[in-house]
């Protein structure tokens, strides 16, 4: 297998596990984050994740060793000057992402592929922060959380993305053990539009006292075959992020994606889910 030099920008939950995926597949992978504390702690968090995953039979000890051997945390984007694929997974803010890509465009080799892990922002608008030639090599790769367990990747071409770039990235996703689908560059892509329609209706059920959050989660797990219910998932990813995504979808598609009042109330009260220790099912 060709060892592709990979760089991932953003060492939070998503970025760190995306980097882990490529490293486990044998690709020399660099990982960085603007926050020094995040950089300092990310390897320890990934080691803990891998230990648990090996214990559950998700990975072998050999895969664990391969992943850690191929993953390096660096202090600055300057180290990305020899990368052939760079995946951006920074904060879900268009300005931050565009600034990151503009800097990477000046640093990276001319033939380096650029990919954004955004879950909602238009890929073409992010690609516009780079040169005309780079835009041919720019697309979206929306991984799903937790990345080490979820096989799906939405691959989203921008306006200028060449068919060859799309095929290369689809093949690369398959080679690292993921199942990619090609999705048009629209707000929310495919999965988030389905998911947040479900979440909005789930919150409405609770507002109307039809069911409790626990009962809705049980119904979705046992009646629909979902691995986790919508309220468990909102607590996992953060209620604030869910509100932000729904605001973007609401702006794009109208009233059907307007966040429910109870979700806004939860966010305003600091009930952000797992990270805050308070949410729908935690606290």
TrEMBL record:
**Is Iron-sulfur included in the keywords of this UniProt record?**
no
| GO biological-process terms attached to the record | fatty acid beta-oxidation
Keyword terms of this UniProt record: Oxidoreductase
Q: Which source organism does the UniProt entry give?
A: Roseospirillum parvum
Site label Important for catalytic activity, positions: 142
Residues covered by the 3-hydroxyacyl-CoA dehydrogenase C-terminal domain: 188-280
Which family, according to UniProt?
Belongs to the 3-hydroxyacyl-CoA dehydrogenase family.
Which InterPro entries does the UniProt record give?
Answer: 3-OHacyl-CoA_DH, 3-OHacyl-CoA_DH_CS, 3-OHacyl-CoA_DH_NAD-bd, 3HC_DH_C, 6-PGluconate_DH-like_C_sf, 6PGD_dom2, NAD(P)-bd_dom_sf
Q: Name one GO molecular function term.
A: 3-hydroxybutyryl-CoA dehydrogenase activity
Put simply, this protein is called: 3-hydroxybutyryl-CoA dehydrogenase
Using the record's annotation, list all stretches that form the 3-hydroxyacyl-CoA dehydrogenase NAD binding domain. Answer: 6-186
- Gene3D superfamilies listed in its UniProt record: N-(1-d-carboxylethyl)-l-norvaline Dehydrogenase, domain 2, NAD(P)-binding Rossmann-like Domain
User: Pfam family of this protein, just one?
Assistant: 3HCDH
Which sequence ranges form a coiled-coil region, renumbered to this chain? none
């Amino acid at each position: 297998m060709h060892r592709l030099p990979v760089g991932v920008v953003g060492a939070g939950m998503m970025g760190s596990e995306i980097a882990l995926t490529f490293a486990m597949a044998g690709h020399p992978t660099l990982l960085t984050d603007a926050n020094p504390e995040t950089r300092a702690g990310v390897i320890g968090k990934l080691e803990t994740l891998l230990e648990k995953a090996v214990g559950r039979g998700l990975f072998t000890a050999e895969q664990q060793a391969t992943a850690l051997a191929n993953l390096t945390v660096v202090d600055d984007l300057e180290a990305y000057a020899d990368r052939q694929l760079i995946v951006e997974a920074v904060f879900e803010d268009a300005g931050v992402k565009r600034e990151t890509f503009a800097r990477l465009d000046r640093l990276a080799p001319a033939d380096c592929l650029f990919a954004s892990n955004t879950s909602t922002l238009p890929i073409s608008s992010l690609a516009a922060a780079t040169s005309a030639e780079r835009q041919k090599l720019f697309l979206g790769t929306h991984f799903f959380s937790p990345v080490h367990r979820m096989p799906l990747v939405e691959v989203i071409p921008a306006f200028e993305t060449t068919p060859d770039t799309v095929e290369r990235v689809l093949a690369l996703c398959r080679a690292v053990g993921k199942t990619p689908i090609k999705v048009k560059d629209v707000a929310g892509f495919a999965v988030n539009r389905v998911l947040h329609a479900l979440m909005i209706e789930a919150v409405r059920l609770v507002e109307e006292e039809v069911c409790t959050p626990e009962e809705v989660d049980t119904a979705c797990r046992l009646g629909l075959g979902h691995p986790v219910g919508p309220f468990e998932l909102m607590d996992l990813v953060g209620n604030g992020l869910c509100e932000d995504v729904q605001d973007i979808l609401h702006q794009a598609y109208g009233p059907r994606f307007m966040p429910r009042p109870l979700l806004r109330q939860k966010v305003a009260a600091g009930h952000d889910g797992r990270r805050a220790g308070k949410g729908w099912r935690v606290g």
